[in-house]
Automatic annotation (TrEMBL):
Keyword rRNA-binding recorded: no
Organism of origin: Eubacterium coprostanoligenes
Gene from which the chain derives: murF
Cell compartments where the protein resides: Cytoplasm
Keywords: ATP-binding, Cell cycle, Cell division, Cell shape, Cell wall biogenesis/degradation, Cytoplasm, Ligase, Nucleotide-binding, Peptidoglycan synthesis
Function: Involved in cell wall formation. Catalyzes the final step in the synthesis of UDP-N-acetylmuramoyl-pentapeptide, the precursor of murein.
Reactions catalysed: D-alanyl-D-alanine + UDP-N-acetyl-alpha-D-muramoyl-L-alanyl-gamma-D-glutamyl-meso-2,6-diaminopimelate + ATP = UDP-N-acetyl-alpha-D-muramoyl-L-alanyl-gamma-D-glutamyl-meso-2,6-diaminopimeloyl-D-alanyl-D-alanine + ADP + phosphate + H(+)
GO CC annotation terms, alphabetical: cytoplasm
Enzyme category, top tier: ligase
Entry EC no(s): 6.3.2.10
Domain Mur ligase C-terminal span(s) in chain numbering: 311-433
Protein name in the entry: UDP-N-acetylmuramoyl-tripeptide--D-alanyl-D-alanine ligase
Similarity comment text for this entry: Belongs to the MurCDEF family. MurF subfamily.
Domain Mur ligase N-terminal catalytic residue range list: 24-70
Length: 451
């Protein structure tokens, strides 16, 4: 981060300060204090960082940002709301840099698309990207503060649960390229309908530069209807779009395809499987096109992809192919993962599925439909865990799956999986983050490796 002064930011934030101070980083956690930083006292549901203001100053912070009536023993700037002020400050800081910024969102696949996109952008630019799950109103500012004079581009992921969140984020991120991966049913509990989700995602346009590319999945039934006279709408897909993936071939845990666009073609191979990842990589290629990155450079960059965390990581454990996909789950990503499991060469196909959370009144229908998808993809075994997992089992049995089992205990689930899985089989682990299916993964991996 480049240096700022309290006297510079106070007028922009409508704030007051007791004495001027200069800072070259922003921090919200006293465990991560760096000398010369601005410590922002965020008040959360369970804690209030104002109680750590003096500690932050003693640890080397140049100043603290507060909204409570306290008198820190050092420089401070007082605002109406520290969380809102941090977001506004990040937008002020981002405006100091004339660089390409890719702002992306979507119901499913945005994090993987971010990783692909960062690889492509980094083929030409010194680029930063959103780290971990820093894609909300607290996380996005932290990423914008990472920009400095050596940064040539940024890839910023934006998530949301409610109307207005993308709007608040995008007006500070100020992207020069916008990207929406798809419109599914994630957070439908808060947004009411897929039409509501589309409306919330299209808040991205509010902060997107006039005339900038708005890159959309042309195969998504909701996004393909989008028209925007203020931006250059560009579609990508397998069936529809100016950029189309053709000749898709999956083999040996990799996928190859050709991108056909504007009379040209580019061959791409990515070291992962699943049609959804073709969409993710294709979106990144389109971003590269609008940043004038050589298509072969983009293809070479995509070939270097490494799955992040537990996001559809394919591993071989003593001859058993395991797909670890436990970071998040929605009906759309579940169907995509089941299709991936179905396409893997192997003997038995086993799906270990945990609940999909935050679906509200749609939960029963969504879980039942995923159970139907287990049957449609000819998955021989379903091991389901969670409160709503019974609807997976119901849906699977409706489709003719005989071996569909419900568990309320991970140890019992793990025990059954150890009994039925053998070399040559393929197993999918998929559930919302809160279900913590990695507990099952850790248990069965130990068992498989002992066999």
């Amino acid at each position: 981060m480049e240096k700022l002064k309290l006297s510079e930011i106070a007028p922009y934030l409508g704030a007051t300060y007791n004495e001027d101070a200069e800072f070259d980083s922003v921090c919200i956690d006293t465990r991560k204090i760096t000398k010369g930083c601005l410590f922002i006292c965020i008040k959360g549901e369970r804690f209030d960082a104002h109680q750590f203001a003096d500690e932050a100053l003693s640890l080397g912070a140049s100043a603290v940002m507060i909204h409570s009536d306290i008198e820190p023993n050092g420089a401070y700037i007082k605002v109406d709301d520290t969380a809102k002020a941090m977001l506004r400050l990040s937008g002020y800081y981002r405006s100091k840099f004339d660089i390409p910024v890719i702002g992306l969102t979507g119901s499913v696949g945005k994090t993987t698309t971010k990783e692909f996109t960062h690889l492509v952008v980094s083929a030409k630019y010194n680029a930063i990207k959103t780290l971990g799950n820093l894609n909300n109103e607290i996380g996005v500012p932290q990423m914008l503060f990472q920009i400095d004079n050596s940064t040539e581009a940024a890839v910023i992921e934006m998530g949301m649960n409610h109307f207005g969140e993308i709007s608040r984020l995008v007006n500070e991120v100020k992207p020069t390229i916008g990207l929406i991966t798809n419109i599914g049913v994630s957070h439908i509990e808060n947004l009411g309908s897929r039409e509501g989700i589309l409306k919330a995602k299209l808040e991205l346009c509010e902060g997107l530069a006039e005339g900038a590319p708005l890159i959309l999945n042309g195969d998504n039934d909701m996004l393909q209807t989008v028209k925007d006279e203020h931006h250059k709408v560009v579609f990508y897909g397998i069936e529809n779009g100016e950029f189309k993936a053709e000749n898709i071939v999956e083999a040996d845990n990799s996928t190859s395809f050709d991108v056909a666009y504007y009379g040209k073609k580019q061959h791409i191979t990515i070291p992962t499987i699943g049609i959804h990842n073709v969409y993710n990589a294709l979106a990144a290629f389109v971003v590269g096109y609008f940043l004038h990155i050589d298509p072969q450079l983009s293809a070479d960059a995509l070939a270097d992809y490494v799955p992040a965390g537990m996001r559809q990581k394919v591993v071989d454990v003593d001859g058993i192919t395991s797909i670890e996909d436990c970071y998040n789950a929605s009906p759309d990503s579940m169907r995509a993962a089941l299709k991936t499991l179905s396409d893997i060469k192997g003997n038995k196909k086993i799906a270990v599925l945990g609940d999909m959370l935050e679906l509200g009144d749609y939960a029963k229908t969504a879980h039942t439909e995923v159970g139907n998808a287990v049957a449609e993809n000819k998955i021989e075994y379903l091991l389901a865990y969670g409160n709503d997992a019974k609807f997976y089992v119901d849906g699977a049995k409706q489709g003719g799956v005989k071996n569909a089992f419900l568990f309320d205990d991970k140890e019992k689930l793990s025990e059954m999986l150890l009994n039925i899985a053998s070399k040559g089989d393929a197993v999918l682990f998929k559930g919302s983050r809160g279900m913590k299916l990695e507990d099952v993964i850790n248990t069965v991996y130990k068992g498989w490796r002992k066999q």
